[in-house]
Design goal:
Among the domains are: 15-74 and 184-248 and 342-400, 3-Layer(bba) Sandwich (FAD/NAD(P)-binding domain), CATH 3.50.50; 401-513, 3-layer Sandwich (Rieske Iron-sulfur Protein). The protein is 27% helix and 29% strand. It is built from 11 helices and 27 strands. It has helices at residues 3-6, 14-17, 42-53, 86-93, 95-118, 137-153, 183-196, 309-323, 366-381, 388-391, 401-423; strands spanning 31-38, 58-61, 77-78, 126-127, 130-134, 157-160, 171-175, 179-180, 200-202, 207-212, 216-220, 225-233, 250-262, 270-273, 279-286, 289-300, 325-339, 345-348, 356-360, 438-443, 446-452, 458-462, 473-475, 480-482, 489-491, 496-498, 507-508. The strands form 5 sheets. Strands 1, 2, 9, 10, 11, 12, 18 and 19 form an 8-stranded mixed sheet that branches. An 8-stranded mixed sheet has the order 6-7-5-14-15-16-13-17, with helices on both faces. The protein has a 4-stranded antiparallel sheet with strand order 20-21-22-27, with no helix packed on it. Strand 1 (31-38), helix 3 and strand 2 (58-61) form a beta-alpha-beta unit. The protein is globular.
Amino acid sequence: MGYDQFFQDKPKSYWIDSVEQMTFQRLDEKLKVDVGIVGAGITGITTAYLLAKQGLDVCLIDANKLMGGTTAHTTAKVTPQHGLIYDEIIQHYGLEFAQSYYAANDEAARFVEETIKNHDIECDYETHFSYVYTNDETYVKKLEQEYEAYERIGIEGRLLDSCNVPIPVQSVLQMKSGAMFHPLRYLQVLLNECIERGVKIYDQTRAINVEYAKHPTIITENGHRIICSYVVQASNYPFYDGTGFYPTKMYADRSYAIAVKTDKLIDEGIYLSAESPKRSLRTVKVNGERALLVVGENHKVGQSEEQTTTHYESLYRFADTHFNVQQTLYHWSAQDLTTLDKLPYVGRVAKGNDNVFVATGFRKWGMTNGTNAALLIRDLIMDNDNPLAQLFSPARELKFDPTIKKLFTFNTDVAKHLIKGKLSRPPKEMEPLAKGEAKVITYNNERAGAYKNEHGEIYIVDTTCTHLGCELNWNEAEKTWDCPCHGSRFSYKGEVIHGPAVQNLQTFTDEKE
């Protein structure tokens, strides 16, 4: 199937399409448990697995189907090499913290490998060296600085001037550890282990708040209550903040993926470009045959300067130029959160909320950092020492001046998009829509969005985000309304797809239909 025809189809993750998704009932009663976990990706499921092994009574819920969110749209690399990060951590937080970050991600990778071996999980797990490469002269020096950080930390690696990939490069930084796998096949086994240990699991159950009295209580969209000794937010963006902290200290970022059959393949290794636009490369087995997975084209949610479909096109052109594409198999997009210092927030939400935990800001490295978060939260609940507690604490002090500048720039960006949306003047009369097209219009003197589906049915929604009131932008590749301020996403019918929003959009009826 050619490029133009294929990318008109609805995006679909290979990970989801290649497994039979597990389904559970929606919560329809009040519960009382030791630990309530919200979000069933790698962090939530691993946390449930670890705490159930400790003998705790655990409940795990998800707003949609389990394993259908960020984890289901990952690149699924298991590596401590998270781009050019270690020199930066040393500069900002010191050598000891950089050593702790590496040690934790190395331990997380070994935890995944040992879990796979212990449970004999068939999930296409393969070990590979990890590589960051550049063909940009300005990044050659940065790779040299990162290699010097490797040497100071004690990371085994090499600085090379070539690699076994048909891409022009000037410098390559190798880390002698890494792996790749099928994340959902791995997590399905952990879920079955959870079930055997009595974990209560519910899907289609959206958490909207936490009430804090004698015990923290999760409040669901349908008004049911989960009374807990501990609450763990593993829902990507925390649905409960407590202090208003998170919207100002991290941002939502989207990226795109294609799986293609090619004439040339990567024989060994997992790869990431140092410069932008990012190009992340690995192979993947599709129906028993090797295919190439290409990921990249990052931009803030709702802020693409081009139509979102052009990001898929850019990945395709890159793959075809260097690997000669024979067939396009899958395409999908992913979303994750980045904190201002690029380190995750894992720990207690805030003072006074000692039994409510958060795990977020993995910067697209959730296979190890999500596992890290689960191990850390287990230790915090079980009162065990963990060197990551200080490094990942949401209350940590941001010590370096560039972050202050970045914080100012980020919050100015949010304000710009908030004001821009409020000042825009969409047409009062709705122009004819083609099938699959959406437009911003004025409806009852308010900004609204109209979309016509493939059957000719028109859906009109209020385009004001139900989180903090920013105006949404249309994402034509995914057929969603996306928030440029904090990353909430809604279907064309107005349903919440991705938080921090927890309430659906107001909907209207097309009177002329």
